[in-house]
Structures are given as structure tokens and as C-alpha cells.
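Self-study notes.
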Amino acid sequence: MTTAGAPALPVGADPVLEAAFVTGDFDAADRALADRLAVARGAGERGAEAALLHWQAMALHYRAIDAGLSSLAPETIEAEEALFTEALGLRRSIDDRAGVAESLFGLGLVHQVLRGDWDAAEPYFFEALTEADEHADLLTRSETHRHVGFFHLVVTDRHDVAVGHLRHSLALRQELGDPRLLATASLALGQALLVAGERSEGVAVLRESVEQAGSGRLRPLWATMTADWLRRAEAGETPSFARTA
């Protein structure tokens, strides 16, 4: 959870982030979202309904990462995509520009992460970035800069541009103040710095990532990943972000 006085997370985000990064208990997240969704629908709160649909999709997304992306069934991908699409439609209908940015980003995730299709993901991420920078919350802005940064690492090979986006993504998470979200942002920046030839800073940022994983109580999936990449970087390895689609 964010600390007292810190900026708010998007509606529906907290139980999903807690499950994804700390507890692994997605069933608890699903129950919390379903309960809140029923209340929102009963009250006719379409903005909250759309936000909760979006985070139901994000819960599916993190479950998919847990299960292993190489073995996903098509219907699993389609279920996540359908929720993001429903949320986006609702948000467009009420002119919720911040929400539109968040759900455009979600659809980009489906294409990039689940399908490995950067060409399909690109327009969603870049439209999300434009909307997010003007209208959205800190987490949505951080996420869109993060994945546009990855786009430049993988697709354009503009490593300096990638580093800029990933550095900004980390800064936004630092401003948000949620300790669960820092380690993976530092990991991404550290890896990008290694690719850009900035090995000394890259290793230093990866060390920070390991420390942040501990202070954020991250589950082994993430804590092991950060520690492994620090070890590999200290041994002289540079990440490869070769495009697969």
C-alpha cells in the first residue's frame, strides 16, 4: 500500500498490486474487485465500473505472467482483451480521458506481452502516452513511459530514448511512493543502461533494485529476478532485447 499522504493509486489497483507483487493471492484480489464492481454497478457509477473492469483485466494479466507466457491458451488472452476493451468503451462514453489512457495501455499490454506483437501494441502505447501525460495518474503515466521505453529498446534501438522513458517511469513511481512498485522500475532502467553502454550506472541501479525488492516485500518471482540480474551484470553480461515478433 502507499504511505499516508502519498498520491492515490487508480481505483481497483491496490488489491491487484498486492497480489501481483507481495502475496500471490489473486483469489483475494478477484473477490475484492467483484465486490466493488457490484457496488459500482448498483450505484450506476460508470467510471468506477470501468476502472474495476480494467483491474480485473490486470489481475488476469499478472496471473498469466505467473503461469508462464509461453503456455497461454488463446481464450486466456481473449478474456483479458475483452475486459480491457469493455473498460475502454465505457471510459470513452463518459469522456474519462485518464481512464482511456489506462485502458489503451492495457490493450497494448495484451499485444506486446501476451502476443509478442510490437507492431500491434505500438499505436495503443503511443496514444496512451499522449493521453496519460496530459490527464492520467502517476501509475498510468509511469507504466506508459515504461513500455514506450521497452519499445525503443526492442524495436527502434534508440537506447538513449529508451533510457529517458525508463528514467522518467522510475521518477514517477518514486513520486507515487508505493514501495511495491520501485524494484521493477529500477530493474528496467538498470537493464536499459547496460544496453546503452552505461555499465557503471546500470549496475548501481540494479543494486538499488535488489534493495527495493527487499524493502517492498516483493515475492520471490520479482526478488529473484532483480538479484539474478545484478549478479549477471556484475559478471559483465548485457541484456538482449531481441525482437521476437
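Second protein, same conventions, sequence then structure:
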Amino acid sequence: MSLENARARVAATLCVLAALAACHHHTTHYVPPRDVVLIVIDTLRADHVSLYGYPRETAPNLARFAREAVTYDDAISPGTWTTPSHGSLFTGRWPSYHGAERVAGDRTLVTPINPEVPTLAELLRPHGFHTAAFVANSAYVARVLGFDRGFDEFFDRDLNVARQVRNALGGWLVGHREHAFIFMNILDPHEPYDPPPPFDTRFPGKHAEYGTTLTTLVFGGIRPTPDMLTHFVSQYDGEIAFTDTVLADIFGDLRSSGRYDDALVVVTSDHGEMFGEHGLAGHGHFPYEPLVHVPLLVKYPRGWRGGERVTRRVSTLGVFATILASVGVPPPADVQSIPLDEPHPVWVEDVAPGGIRVRAGYDGARKLVRTTTDHGDVDMLFDLARDGDETHAITEANASAELHTALAAFSAAPRPVNRGTTPVVDPEREFKLRALGYLQ
């Protein structure tokens, strides 16, 4: 994409935004945001959020926020775990293009964001935005992986729980009045599942003797019983409910600071979590829907389009382009992100444990997953309309030939060389990885 085309896309998108504004009652015209707030709730699968039809009321405050926001019902993350998904949000590129991925054959080593790829913070800062990040998952949204690039301030110590993130943000808001891009990573739904009282008993099924980490049991060769899974799900849901209360406080702090009404606020997740589906636990492996279907809500300034629900499938990769278009900043010429309300492909890709490259693509209800090893490719095609649990791969000949062709082309396209240096796991980072269940 040339710079002229990039600027034309921004102009066209802003024209569409302005034209649509008259159709929504919250405001009669589109107002560019004064501030941009991006909140990523780590490890939050959409089907455990009450707004998305979950029978437990896990997130009533998020549902209230949705009255002022656009809710995307079928948002797909580009990756199945933290680093590649955050990398896509930060760069507007698919994981193998921005480069922040797992090193093949290693569970913990990760390559950084390609230093030649600009980040969202680097693009916004020259346009008058003070950039500040508040990061709970400092093991994988890490400085050594390039996630601090472009941030004037990058807070990543002692922010392990949502209350600490909120407190750090609250203190920061008191001392700052300039236009800002604020990024928050909130980690509570991630293992260990240990919600504070009363959220640990908010939902039935707690058995404290089973502990707080499901993956520890699975890695230890223990097959979880139904009671065990019920326990872990109850604690996971409790973590979501706790996070939801803190999210309401964060919105309150933004209001008190005078930033909320005129801000673009995006709430999403980097990936979901598995609780025994397909015999799996945790995340970072096969791109089943519980791992890649995530919440996505976008609040525009002054409630424009508030309460709207978009049923069309989108990729959270589009958050990058949507933010830039909203503030009138042209995207890089080679960016792959397309604004959420424009048609765009939806891909997922990852390097699974064992060095297996996994990619997935969608065409309507059809989902094609390709695993690539030294022995070649294996394709699995699912019909999500008939088989939402992805338990029966379609085997008929020539099924979704166009999707096969598109995924093959996406897989075969050349990727840029990542010239970043893979960081070693130092003792401090190793401690964090153990606390999060990545090391046993």
C-alpha cells in the first residue's frame, strides 16, 4: 500500500464514520477522539462473558459499557496466546509478519517484534499523544520483546492483579492532562485461577484441594475429573467477575479525569482458555474457537454508535487500523490491518509447542485449519454452524476449495526476516513464567 493510498484510506474511513454518525442517536456527528484507551483482558474467552450469552452473570459492567459501544459478536484473535496476539494489536500485522512468536521446539523462548516494524505507540506519539502502558503480563508483553517501543512510560512492575493496574492508572491520571494513548493489560483471568473473596465463591463448584492451576495437573499426567473442571471453571469465572468490577472502576477513573466521554475506548482480549475441550488445557496450541473467539467492544467519543452489535466475523487485527483511522493517522504502507467495519480476511496463526506451524482461515461458517510439520501439511475443515464444538472434520472432496486456495496462498507468501535478537530467559522472567504456569 503506497503512502497516498494509505492517506486515501484514512480519509475514506473518516468520511464513512461521519456519514454514519447521523444514523445514531448518541451524537449527530462523528467526533475524533481526544484520547485512545486500549484495554486487553488477558485470557478472556468470549463464551464465558454474559454479554456474549453466557448464563452466568460474569460481566454486568461490561454489558453496561456495551450500551455506549459497538459490540463485535464474532471477533477472532490472530493468535492463540499472549505474545503473537498482542504483537498483532500493536503492529497491525499477522504474527509471522511482525515476528513475535514462539521459537520452534521451545516452550518459553520467544522472538521479539521485528525492530523494523513500527508499533502503534510509535505512530501515535509524533501526533501529539503522550503514550503510557500499564502491563500485568510482563513476562510476555515484555520490554525485551519490543512491547515498550514508542511508550513514554511503561509500567510493568507490581501490577499482577487488576486492582494494582487500576491504582497505577489512577495515580497517573492525576498528574497528566495531555492527549494520551493509554494501554492496559489486565491478567486476572489467566492462571493461577485465584479470585479474591467473595468472587472465589460467586459461582458454585469450588474445591480448594484442586489448587489454582489446571495446566499443572495436565502436564503432570493427571486427567481432570468433571469435579476438577467444574472447580477450575468456577474460579476462572470468578476472576472474570472480579475483573469486571475493576473495569467499572477504571471507567469511573477515566470519567473523573474528564477523559472518558471524548475517548476512543477499546476492550478486547488476546486469547481464550481451554478447560478440557479436546483434552486440552490452557492456551497456545490448536486454534479451536474457545481460544480465538474473544470479546471486542469499541466505544467511540460521545457514545456514537452506542449499543450497536456487529454479527459479521472480524479480526482483532483491525483494532490497529481502526485506532489510526479514528485519529487521522495514516497507517504504514505495508500494514495488513484493515478497519473493523471494512471487509477483511480473518486468519489465525501460531507456532504450537513442538515447533508445529498452525494456521486457520474462515469462509462463512467454514473454518479450515492447517498444521505444517517436517512431514507436510494436514488440513482439517469444520462447519461451525453444524459443529460448533469442532469435533467432526469435514472429509468430502473439494469442500471449500476457495478457502483451501486462499489459506495456501497466505501460508506460502514470503515473510520478512526478523532481525531482532531472541532474549534469554533471565531469573526474574523465569520466576514470572513459573507463576503463570508456563514452566513447571
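Instructor comment on the second fold: The two ends are 45 Å apart (CA to CA).
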